[in-house]
Every structure is written in structure tokens, then in C-alpha cells.
Amino acid sequence: MKTVAEIMTKEVITVGTETTIRELAELFVTHRISSLPVVNAAGSLIGIVTESDLVEQSKSVHLPTVISLFDWVIYLESEKTLEKELKKMGGRTVADIYQPEAVSIAPTASLSEAADLMSTHHTNAVPVLENGRLVGIVARIDIIRTLLV
Fold first, then answer.
1. Cβ distance 110 to 128 under 8 Å?
2. Which residue has the higher pLDDT, 76 or 27?
3. Within 10 Å of residue 22's Cβ, how many Cβ atoms?
4. What pLDDT sits at residue 79?
5. Most-buried pick from 28, 102, 103, 133 (CB within 10 A)?
6. Distances 97 to 30, 68, 91, 139 between C-alpha atoms, Å
7. Mean pLDDT of all residues in 123-144
8. Is the dihedral of CA 5, 9, 13, 14 positive or negative?
9. Distance between CA atoms of 36 and 94, rounded to whole angstroms?
10. Which pLDDT band, with edges at 50, 70 and 90, does 149 fall under?
11. Cβ distance 98 to 47 under 8 Å?
């Protein structure tokens, strides 16, 4: 059975939180990728940013549902959700739109483990970490390519 190390992309393109939205879009288009690891100044993984995060900037604002009862306004949704949505929509850099909760996988993991992780977390790519260091990225297309061999 193949491992993640055998199919992952080893030369990983990364972005920092200061990368502009325009630069991010150019990377997605130029390299035909849909997810990029976000790293800090030391090169440590701090999150992931996807095409979906970028597309969310163009969606309509969803105002929270409220109930008015005896001069009280009761929010049926979190105000923080609206705040987060507005921040993403007006974002100028990766810091404004990326997902800080990036799942990762070890290079020794099996392809089925990678597929399970992608399916469970609804993600197209997973950063590969070895001893806390980013050593690659594995995407759904990498797993699909193994079906051709």
C-alpha cells in the first residue's frame, strides 16, 4: 500500500498572512491549485487558505435572524458569525480569510487515511508534517492519479 510520502507534492508553495488577496488569486490561477498552506515567519504551518475562502468574498451578506420581544432583540444566530463573515468579505490579505484550523497528516500515513481525512474535513488538500515541519502537501488529485497506475 502506498503512503502519503510517495504521492505528495514536495515542493510546496506557501503563503504568509501578509500575502495580498490579489497575489493569492494569482497563485491559484498560475499554479492551478485550490489550497495553500499558510505559514508564519519561521515557516511553521498556521493554517490553510482555499479557493472557497477567496470565493466567499463575493457572496451576499446574510443578516442574522432576530426576534423582537417586549423591546428586547434576541439574535437567533451569533453576532460573531456576522462579524467574521464581514471581515472575510472585506479582506485585503490572507490574514483576513484563511482557516487557522488546518488538519495535517504524516508522510507515513496511508492513502486511505488521507482520503478519510479529506472526506471527514471536506477539504481538497492536506499539509504533510514531519516532526512539526511542513514537508509536502497531498491533494485529492494526487490520490486520483494512483488509480491510473
1. no
2. 27
3. 10
4. 61
5. 102
6. 20, 32, 6, 21
7. 94
8. negative
9. 10
10. confident
11. yes
